Amino acid sequence: MDEAGTSWARDLLRTSLRYAKSPPSPDDVVVTDFTDDPEKVEYVRILIYHILHGRDIVACYNVVLLVVLLGFTARHFIKKRRDQQRWKARTQALPFSEQAAKSASSSSSSTLQGTPSPPDSTKLDVDLEQQPLLASTARPCPRSLRDITRAWLMYQPRPIPFINRTLPPNETSLFVLAYIALNVFFQFFQSPLEPKYFFAFADRIGYVFIVNLPLLYLLAAKNQPLGFLTGYSYESLNIFHRRVGELMCFAALAHTVTFVIWQAWCCPDWLLVGNLWDFLMDQRNLIGMGSLVAYELLYATSLASFRARCYELFLASHVILQVVAPAFLYLHFFTSRPYVLASLAIFLVDRIVWRLSLKSETFTADLEVLEDEQTLLLSARWSIPYQSNYPLCSWLRQSIRRGWKPMDHVFITIPSLGRTHSLQTHPFTIASAAPRLRGALDMETPQHAWLSLLIRARDGFTRDLLQYSLSHSRVPVRIDGPYGSAEALDMLRACESRILIAGGSGIAVVFPLAWALAQHPPPDGARSRRRDIHLLWVVHSRSHLSWLPQERLDELAEVGIQVTMPGPTAEAGRPDIAGYISEMSTRAQMRQQELGVVVSGPDNLNRVARNACARGVEGGAKIRLSVEKFGW
């Protein structure tokens, strides 16, 4: 490294080691003259090399992330194309005969007709009418290493004792560990660990922090390309957003601590100017500590316990701190500025340009308090406007007014509840069936949409809305959305046998899926040769059955969907979900069918269903699983 090429870096190093309360003037750059000491000159040269070399290494971090993203994108589109081809091939098979359709409808609806309330027994019987009289000659496939690996990845461990923290499935934990390992690699690769070069080590921690900043904001955005590229909607990626944020908060704290260690114990005496207090009171370091405090507050207010108790405060603090923290970081050091500007651009485009301008619509909705008096139904009806034949116009008008897909959710704002609530948005899954869209629609015969949201009153917004609904039957509501992914629906359509399991209000997720499978044939109008679809709804109380009108379940049964409702868990205990899935997977395995399972409910129900599927996969069954988790 020649003298001319490093003179600016040497000056920068010297400037960063000054601890004056006011910015240094050009004359202040020279602290002590060490150019006559070859050892000191060599030390500065090596230190500057480690600083710049470390930044060059960490600058490649986002390139690695891009390569990983390309891999997931290729995997997603290959799987999506295969699922679409399988669904199209199956639906173009021999169509239903009228007698077969009538027989299936009669057999299925018998589970509901005459039993408006669920049976008292919790036993879940597999539909024996569809079992072959003679045993299948097909034998279960022997276990393979691939099956064992898939089962282990699908398995979800028990919650951590004492703190009762829910753990994700092994595949998610493995991915998070790989992400952490990648950051550890970039931190330690060719990084000097000698105490005298600790400045370079501390500087690299800060650089690891800032290169993760755009990823953090991208994962937090509701409108981002990752959903299209990977098939995972932003709420599915939220767990990675939280892990990225936690790692960054740790890195910010480590960056501060390591620089304090450098100042207190590792910095050569001939480079020191001032004491530790002078270091902490330096203007640049004060700004950096302001950024540190802002990001640590972001972490603290994002904890699940805080969100559950103070969701409104979480929303407000998250929006404010997402702007304040990068502003401090921008002023802290110039190397962070490109990453800060990129992150703020993501934030502004998502929040202002897209969500408020393009995806937000206002409706007048009906309010109805349901039988349990703790749940209300918010519903709205409208005609779907004419769909443009131009793809760009349709893409730019992706608001709820133009329909939605099964399992989509929206964010709602109700200004009538008060000034505080007028600035808040709250997420809810769309509980009604998605409207049938046929591309460009005739303006004279528009399609109609009926949107309903199942809202359980807890604290804050939902409790205030419930109280408001006791004296008001209608309310203006601003709806932002829809958001979601069609991955689960595509997966179910590609499978020969399907199970949909709902726990409580999870029926808001499962019912639109079941309706789409039954009512939405492929565009060519062909119908499936066999409708092997099973819906299981577990409720805690009989009053919860009012969440979904009985006629909706009857309509599902009439088109051949096997509907099962065991006794309420408050009366009959929890049903044997694991045994139910085991029997169904064994039957699908004997028929050499692929079984698709979608489950939506409380954490315990999701874990039981997931692990039952994992045991089936380990036994050689072909099972694909999608879990829709409660919470935010």
From TrEMBL:
UniProt-annotated location(s): Membrane
Any GO BP annotation: iron ion transport
Major location (coarse): membrane
MF annotations from Gene Ontology: ferric-chelate reductase activity
Region Disordered, annotated ranges: 92-123
PROSITE patterns: FAD_FR
GO terms under cellular component: plasma membrane
SUPFAM superfamilies recorded: Ferredoxin reductase-like, C-terminal NADP-linked domain (SSF52343)
Transmembrane spans: 59-78, 174-193, 205-223, 244-265, 285-306, 313-333
Cited Gene3D superfamilies: Nucleotide-binding domain of ferredoxin-NADP reductase (FNR) module
UniProt keyword terms in alphabetical order: Ion transport, Membrane, Transmembrane, Transmembrane helix, Transport
Membrane topology annotation: Multi-pass membrane protein
Pfam families, per database record: FAD_binding_8, Ferric_reduct
Residues in FAD-binding FR-type domain copies: 336-489
Family matches, as CDD domains: NOX_Duox_like_FAD_NADP
Biased composition, class Low complexity, residue ranges: 100-110
Protein name as it appears in the record: FAD-binding FR-type domain-containing protein
Originating species: Apiospora kogelbergensis
